[in-house]
Amino acid sequence: MGVLSGFRVIELAGMGPCPMAGMLLADMGAEVICVDRGVNADPMYAKDMSRRGKKSVVLDLKSDRGRELFLKLVSTADVLIEGFRPGVMEKLGIGPEPCFEINPELIYGRMTGWGQDGPLAKNAGHDINYIALTGALHAIGPKGEKPVLPLNLVGDFGGGSMFLVMGILGALLETGRSGKGQVVDAAMVDGVANLMWMCHSFNAVGLWNLAERGTNLLDGAAFFYDTYETSDGKYLALGSIEPQFFSQFVERMGLDKTVFNGSAQNDPSQWPSLKQELAEAFRQKTRDDWCALLEDSDACVSPVLSASEAPHHPHNSARDSYLPIDGYLQPAPAPRFSRTPSSVLHGRRQPGADTRSILTAMGIRGDDIDQLEADGTVACARAPETA
């Protein structure tokens, strides 16, 4: 039984941040019901891990009867999450007001890029746009070169999904005391701005240059915090910041201690030349040779693994950090709980796989469900897929 066992979450089908948020809530034990629009023909959908652990009901939210069924479902829920542009849910007649009328304790989670208000609120956008507007994209990349895209991890998932989940959990705690629901406005620009807190803190005391990337402690400028190519064309990640870790790295590498010392580590003017020396040293052995020498220590050196290599690293294997679900390896639920562990209840379900059972639990008779299906208000998949 996960920490959210007994809570019901309604998720409006979408892309990216909302589905991940729903996945995390399902992993923690919540009953997550995804309201789908119909059959998804996208080939990626067949292996969409964000669908794991969720039930599926297909409703036509553009029909009066479909909205009526949706609001009846919302009346049984603790949380609703949606990722549409501002005003879309209101236009459909299922915005916060009608939902709160039937369920005053509902947590109404809204996931957008720009937020529910502001000059850009109704504009289209993607991860790249949100991290651009918050200074995060500008900060990533080598000095004098163009910004480097950090996949869509920072905006969509770091600034989006994680802040939506945090907001929902916080609101659930408050509702437990007040008995009142509320709207959680989770905007990726707000989340990413918070992710940049350390850079702003360092800048405030003169230890970070916000205007120029590739010149700071953690952005690849420092020789002791960067990646290095090995003789087999692979890479190592080095992060020996603290003096005691740096000294162990120097010792294990067999480097000249008169050159690689604390004074040099704290002198940015020496970083470029020492980086060249380190690059040449690392090119003398393979990645695995260096790992055998350095990884089992406090030198803070790790292999740069591909996503296909990562599940098979001894540490990840020992912790069962990846699980076989739906015929391929997926990251295991996180974080871990000592008494109420998270788990993946089942793999992806077909759209509408749970429509009939959910409507039946709402008190709708079988022949009425048949009629709703016949007129297109709902869709029912006959054979739910399980892991």
Give a verbal description of the structure.
With 387 residues, the protein is an alpha/beta fold. It folds into 2 domains: 8-194 and 322-379, 3-Layer(aba) Sandwich (Rossmann fold); 225-229 and 235-303, formyl-coa transferase, domain 3. It has helices at residues 17-27, 64-74, 88-92, 96-102, 127-133, 153-178, 188-195, 197-204, 243-253, 262-265, 271-282, 287-294, 314-318, 355-361, 366-374, and strands at 8-12, 31-36, 54-59, 79-82, 107-112, 182-187, 225-229, 235-239, 301-303, 322-325, 328-331, 378-379. The longest helix has 26 residues, at 153-178. It is elongated.
Throw out a few tags for this protein.
387 residues, Rossmann fold, three-stranded antiparallel β-sheet
Short description, anyone?
The chain has 387 residues and is of the alpha/beta class.
Overall CATH class of the largest domain: Alpha Beta
> How big a fraction of the residues is strand?
5-15%
What spatial form do the alpha-carbon principal axes imply?
elongated
Helix-residue proportion: 25-40%
CATH architecture label of the largest domain: 3-Layer(aba) Sandwich
Structural class estimated from helices and strands? alpha/beta
Unreliable spans are none
Layout of secondary structure:
Layout: E1 8-12, H1 17-27, E2 31-36, E3 54-59, H2 64-74, E4 79-82, H3 88-92, H4 96-102, E5 107-112, H5 127-133, H6 153-178, E6 182-187, H7 188-195, H8 197-204, E7 225-229, E8 235-239, H9 243-253, H10 262-265, H11 271-282, H12 287-294, E9 301-303, H13 314-318, E10 322-325, E11 328-331, H14 355-361, H15 366-374, E12 378-379
